[in-house]
């Protein structure tokens, strides 16, 4: 049975259509990723799914209950972890959890033990009574997630939970998410990090410009690219001049560039690489590094949208 | 309602913890009320005009003033009167400031007045005691006006056959004035200084106190926790209700504690407790509405706090919380009615006159109208911006 079902979600802010017909479903225990660059419509989509933002059209149900900004019962099934840290700095972790636990209607006799469990899961048992303004960024991030877990939701929505997190804390967060998935919680995970989507998600939706461009398992998505490889060139000099020169090679499927690098999507990188380096030499643009990457979600995104995830 | 109580409980514990609400809601107003009431005299109770008097006259007119009028004024606590033997000594004491003013009745004064030649009294005032000198002059003028009336009465008696002028004059002066004007409106409806400054500071700082509740909605947005509240299984109105409840509780606690403490510590007389409570509730609601408007227009908590401070100070000054409006220009008294502060102080003043509870109805309704208008404005501007309702 699907925990989350959404279809035809639409949201426009004046003339800007932020989300345009987004729809997908998540089963119990499944981790579903929304992968896209900043501004792709990920946060707007999950804001409508969490009942924070009113949609202009479309429908969301969680565990069979329709979710809107006015529903209250269905929202108790959802755990929401905002992208930015959303905790009260002048309260301790325990007090933050107590407050939200009461709002979610956790019975008083259960709340204390549940808070202890969550503090244990997020590794803050020994600092639970300290004010959160004294916490490190990573500790705040973990509490941010802990609040979303507190009421044991059927669906947990995590909006880019690792943004701005150090590698150690990031890994701890990813491990927590994996554990939650194993326990049977349905997870909706937004990210613009390809590695996270590949590691965590059973299925991924590629979202860009407010629309879902493709959806499926990693294997299904990579098959969309075929045998295409991504050649990543480190560039010393004008990347734009190199791109212009490379566009004369017909076998190249797409080229994107940013400061200091050029990414080229091709079929058969080993065959085309010498020719590409020749062109680079002729243009006088220095090459500082070459990397060939086999198809992954990054190349899927490049293939589908013609731009890199970091754009 | 349950969610609103939970949110208000959390907000109140935060406010108590950061102590700013206690500082602005209790310590500052109580401290200023104590200072103001200590340095500014309460009405005329302790306004002691020191006057000296020399009576070189032997007639009834000066004798009545020195022996009857001045002792009566002294008993009322308005003046302290000292008799002098020499004009030079009296002048020296006035000049040195030992006395604020002095009366000198020259020899033959009463006879000159009675004969119609017209007498003159010398009033010597200290240059630095203009108000005291004016009071001394007012007492003398008042008496001399009566003397004129007596003169007319004695003249009439003589025309009608009476013969003993001195006896007639003494009798007429001893007769109470037939018609006396009693300025009860002005005298009784104004709060004494202690109560005025206690109430003034309470309502002035009330506007700073209630801002903590309404502005915390901006803080929720700033800290990102508003998103969590919006995602929680609660009615969105309970978020607003919780914030309003926080403001209301902070405001009421501040007002009640100040009323009780100023009554016990400095003897402020707030009046009928039920009437005072009605006025307090109306004042808190009006402050809540006005501060809510500022909060929804502001973009950050800091901006809201700055704007709210400006509004609170401006309304407090206009509303006459630092000085009685009776001493202000007429135009200021008129515009003060555009503030809840003036209505609150007027309501208390009317209560202090000993009238029934009905006197608080109009001030309370005036303050509630501020609440209705401002909360409506806050709703229109704020519901989309803050809560996306």
Quick structural gist:
By secondary structure, chain A is α/β, with parallel strands linked by helices.
Description:
The complex is a heterodimer of chains A (311) and B (389). Chain A is α/β, with parallel strands linked by helices. Chain A contains ten helices and 14 strands. Chain A has helices at residues 42-49, 93-103, 108-121, 137-149, 167-182, 194-200, 218-225, 239-246, 269-283, 297-305; strands at 2-13, 16-27, 31-35, 57-62, 65-66, 78-81, 155-159, 186-191, 203-208, 211-216, 228-236, 252-258, 261-267, 286-293. A six-stranded mixed beta sheet of chain A has the order 6-7-8-3-9-10, with helices on both faces. In chain A, strands 2-1-4-5 form a four-stranded antiparallel beta sheet, with helices on one face. In chain A, a hairpin with a 2-residue loop joins strand 12 and strand 13 (261-267). Chain B has 389 residues and is mainly α. Chain B folds into two domains: 2-42 and 192-385, no CATH class; 49-174, abc type-2 transporter like fold (3-Layer(aba) Sandwich), CATH 3.40.1710.10. Chain B is 70% helix and 5% strand. Chain B has helices spanning 2-18, 20-39, 60-75, 87-96, 109-114, 130-159, 165-174, 184-188, 193-223, 225-231, 236-266, 273-297, 301-318, 330-335, 340-352, 361-387; strands at residues 49-55, 79-83, 101-105, 122-125. The A-B interface holds A 50-54, 69-70, 72-76, 78, 80, 82, 84-91, 99-100, 102-105, 147 and B 3, 6-7, 10, 14, 17-18, 223-225, 227-236, 388.
């Amino acid at each position: 049975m699907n925990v989350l079902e959404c279809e035809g979600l639409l949201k426009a802010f004046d003339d800007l259509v932020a989300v345009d017909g987004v729809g997908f479903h998540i089963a119990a225990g499944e981790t579903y990723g929304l992968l896209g660059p900043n501004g792709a419509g990920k946060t707007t989509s999950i804001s409508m799914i969490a009942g924070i933002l009113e949609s202009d059209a479309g429908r969301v149900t969680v565990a069979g209950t329709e979710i809107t900004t006015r529903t209250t019962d269905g929202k108790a099934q959802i755990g929401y972890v905002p992208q930015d840290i959303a905790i009260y700095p002048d309260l301790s972790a325990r007090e933050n959890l107590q407050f939200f636990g009461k709002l979610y209607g956790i019975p008083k006799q259960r709340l204390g033990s549940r808070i202890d469990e969550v503090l244990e899961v997020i590794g803050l048992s020994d600092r639970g009574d300290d004010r959160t303004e004294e916490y490190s960024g990573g500790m705040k991030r973990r509490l941010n997630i802990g609040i979303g877990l507190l009421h044991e939701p059927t669906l947990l929505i995590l909006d880019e939970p690792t943004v701005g997190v150090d590698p150690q804390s990031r890994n701890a967060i990813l491990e927590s998410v994996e554990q939650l998935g194993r326990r049977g919680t349905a997870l909706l995970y937004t990210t613009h990090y390809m590695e996270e989507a590949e590691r965590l998600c059973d299925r991924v939706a590629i979202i860009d410009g407010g629309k879902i461009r493709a959806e499926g398992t990693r294997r299904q998505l990579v098959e969309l690219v075929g045998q295409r490889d991504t050649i990543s060139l480190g560039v010393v000099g004008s990347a734009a001049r190199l791109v212009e020169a490379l566009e004369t090679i017909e076998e190249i499927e797409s080229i994107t560039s940013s400061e200091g690098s050029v990414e080229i999507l091709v079929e058969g990188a080993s065959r085309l690489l010498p020719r590409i380096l020749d062109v680079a030499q002729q243009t006088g643009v220095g090459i500082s590094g070459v990397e060939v990457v086999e198809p992954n979600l990054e190349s899927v995104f490049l293939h589908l949208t013609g731009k890199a995830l970091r754009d | 309602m349950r969610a609103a109580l939970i949110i208000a409980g959390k907000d109140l514990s935060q406010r108590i913890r950061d102590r700013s609400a206690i500082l602005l809601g209790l310590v500052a107003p109580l401290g200023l009320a104590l200072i103001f009431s200590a340095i500014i005299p309460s009405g005329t109770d302790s306004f002691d005009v020191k006057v000296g008097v020399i009576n070189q006259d032997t007639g009834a007119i000066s004798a009545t003033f020195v022996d009857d009028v001045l002792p009566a004024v002294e008993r009322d606590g308005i003046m302290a009167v000292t008799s002098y033997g020499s004009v030079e000594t009296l002048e020296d004491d006035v000049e040195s400031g030992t006395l604020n003013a002095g009366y000198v009745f020259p020899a033959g004064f009463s006879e000159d007045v009675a004969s119609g030649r017209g007498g003159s009294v010398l009033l010597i005032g200290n240059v630095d005691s203009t108000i005291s000198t004016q009071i001394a002059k007012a007492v003398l003028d008042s008496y001399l006006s009566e003397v004129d009336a007596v003169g007319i009465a004695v003249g009439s008696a003589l025309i009608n056959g009476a013969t003993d002028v001195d006896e007639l004059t003494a009798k007429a002066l001893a007769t109470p004035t037939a018609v006396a004007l009693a300025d009860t409106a002005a005298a009784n409806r104004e709060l004494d200084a202690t109560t005025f400054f206690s109430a003034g500071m309470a309502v002035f700082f009330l506007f700073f106190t209630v801002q903590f509740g309404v502005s915390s909605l901006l803080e929720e947005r700033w800290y990102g926790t508003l998103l969590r509240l919006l995602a929680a299984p609660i009615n969105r109105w309970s978020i607003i209700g919780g914030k309003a409840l926080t403001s209301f509780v902070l405001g009421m606690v501040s007002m009640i504690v100040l009323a009780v403490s100023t009554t016990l510590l400095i003897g402020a007389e707030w009046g009928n407790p039920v009437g005072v409570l009605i006025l307090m509730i109306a004042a808190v609601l009006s402050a809540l509405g006005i501060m809510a408007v500022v909060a929804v227009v502001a973009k950050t908590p800091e901006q809201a706090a700055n704007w709210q401070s400006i509004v609170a100070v401006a309304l407090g000054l206009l509303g006459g919380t630092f000085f009685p409006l009776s001493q202000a220009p007429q135009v200021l008294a008129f515009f003060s009615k555009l503030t809840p502060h003036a209505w609150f102080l007027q309501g208390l003043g009317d209560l202090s006159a000993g009238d029934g509870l009905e006197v608080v109805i109009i001030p309370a309704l005036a303050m509630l109208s501020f609440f209705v208008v401002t909360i409506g404005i806050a709703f229109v501007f704020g519901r989309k911006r803050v809560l996306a309702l």
